[in-house]
Design a protein that fits this description.
499 residues; alpha+beta; Beta-clip-like; Methane Monooxygenase Hydroxylase, Chain G, domain 1; four-stranded antiparallel beta sheet; three-stranded antiparallel beta sheet; 16 helices; 43% helix; globular; SET_SmydA-8; SET domain-containing protein; SET_dom_sf
């Protein structure tokens, strides 16, 4: 019998969690899991309830049984996931659904994923048992605006629209399922718009803002969890990030509290310097001070906004309103910047990095650097070989700066790191093309290009082709073939050259 790579364990502090069941190597696939439930996002325009892709009035056809609009693929009307709302419409509502407006988010779709969960209660007890073991945070949600909106737009709507028996389907049970969907749902970006899926073991992966695993999805919507740059010993906890690793501490804390109902106390959030990167640093307001105000989160706080901004150099506590004023000023210019214009991005970086109001590693700058690094050479009509030597050098500098931060804060993140490795591969290949007079320089540049390409291919090889990174992975394979042929020819030419 093959030993499972992971196991679900329980701890009185963190509850159920996922741990390595044996030693896992770096970049190893630890889990591939089919969803328990999948369905449309709560706020969405009309989508096919089979494939979950966007549809229009002209492109849709009505399901013959229930009337819900579907795409033209006949398989979608028979899709296993569509069975829930289809059966309820036929057996409980006893009247076909008719969607007339396809131009705006439609309220009828808000309850579909919840219906699909509730449907399991009498039709798939095993799935229902797994769903109801997941955290709903009803106590934390109760009284909040989202909870009350779910009561009106989902719980009350379902009982009225589908004529549910109040004795069989209580408001509390429906709202509990709403919480399970909110807390455990993963956004799956394989369709336009993205859809939501709930997984079993995948819901028990711990959160960390410095996770040791990354997540992606297979083409058929299975969750794929992979270890990062460091190996995980048997018994070690596996973690992913529930929020955006590119955000600063204050943004991550607020997002996690709002959507997952906890205040993060991970090593990154607990360290004002964010592991020595000063990623959220704002220049100290004290005259002649060389330090940066950093976010101090009290270890015992349950308030995500209970952050004390303290200078790392003079220890002055800075008024949070002053921090907000600085961030708002830079943020407004960043929002107004044309992100598709390399000149605008570069002017933003040149101005604000030299102004010194934020630390050079600040998350605003990291985000713009990442954008600009990928923008150079990618715009239509401005390919890589059209860049000046200075622009090509700047592209390399940007990639390396972001990777330096990534090595510390999100070393397990495959997509960002893989994309940057691919950009560095392209830069070195272009360097080689421009150095044709010196065979040794060409050979060195091509070998470095191959190294970066191999890194990119390894990091991106599990990304589905529906994502840009998956398309990049396919390009890696072709580029590897072309690069090997070029290196072979170069070796042969060097071998036949006179000594």
């Amino acid at each position: 019998m093959v030993k499972q790579l992971i196991k679900v364990a329980e701890d009185p502090t963190v509850g159920r969690y996922v741990a390595a069941n044996l030693d896992l190597t770096a970049w190893q696939v630890a889990l591939v899991e089919r969803p328990l439930i999948r369905g449309p996002s709560q706020v969405t325009g009309p989508v096919c309830l089979g494939c979950l892709k966007s549809i229009t009035a002209d492109s849709s056809v009505r399901c013959e049984r229930c009337g819900w609009p579907m795409c033209s693929d006949s398989k979608c009307s028979d899709d296993e996931w569509h069975k829930a709302e289809c059966d309820w419409t036929v057996s409980r509502r006893k009247q076909k659904v008719e969607i007339k407006d396809f131009t705006i988010p439609h309220p009828s779709y808000q309850s579909i994923t919840v219906i699909r969960c509730l449907y399991q209660k009498h039709n798939n007890p095993d799935v229902w048992a797994k769903l109801t073991k997941l955290e709903s945070h009803c106590a934390s949600r109760r009284g909040g605006s989202k909870y009350e909106a779910d009561r009106v737009w989902i719980a009350d709507h379902l009982r009225r629209f589908y004529k549910l028996d109040p004795e069989e389907w209580s408001i509390e049970e429906i709202l509990r399922v709403c919480g399970i969907v909110q807390v455990n749902g993963h956004e799956v970006p394989l369709t336009d718009p993205p859809y939501v899926a709930i997984y079993d073991a995948g819901s028990m992966l711990e959160h960390s803002c410095v996770p040791n695993c990354s997540k992606t999805f297979t083409r058929d919507g299975h969750l794929l969890i992979r270890t990062g740059a460091a190996a995980v010993e048997s018994g070690g906890h596996l973690s992913i990030s529930y929020t955006d690793v590119l955000w600063g501490t204050a943004q991550r804390l607020a997002h996690l509290a709002d959507t997952k109902f906890f205040v993060c106390k991970c090593p990154r959030c607990s360290d004002p310097t964010e592991l020595g990167t000063y990623y959220s640093g704002v220049k100290c307001a004290t005259e002649d001070c060389m330090g940066y105000a950093l976010p101090n989160v009290h270890p015992s706080t349950n308030d995500p906004f209970d952050i004390e901004w303290t200078c790392n150099f003079c220890s002055t506590v800075i008024d949070p309103n002053r921090i907000e004023l600085t961030l708002s000023h830079v943020g407004r210019d960043m929002a107004a910047m044309n992100r598709r214009d390399p000149n605008h991005c570069r002017m933003f970086l040149d101005h604000y990095v030299s102004a010194g109001d934020l630390h050079p590693n600040h998350y605003y700058f990291t985000e713009v650097r990442l954008n600009l690094a990928q923008l150079y050479g990618q715009l239509e009509g401005h390919p890589l070989d059209s860049l000046s030597s200075e622009q090509l050098s700047h592209k390399r500098e940007l990639c390396l700066k972001v990777l330096k931060v990534a090595d510390v804060l999100f070393s397990a993140e495959c997509r960002i790191r893989g994309s940057l490795m691919f950009e560095l591969h392209a830069i070195m290949a272009e360097d080689a093309r421009r150095s044709q007079q010196d065979t040794n320089v060409v050979m060195e540049a091509l070998l470095r290009s191959k190294f970066y390409l191999e890194q990119a291919e390894n990091l991106l090889k599990y990304e589905p082709k529906e994502l840009p990174e998956g398309q990049m992975a396919a390009q890696c394979k072709q580029n590897a073939i072309d690069l090997d042929l070029l290196l072979k020819k170069l070796h042969e030419s060097i071998g036949s050259a006179p000594m």
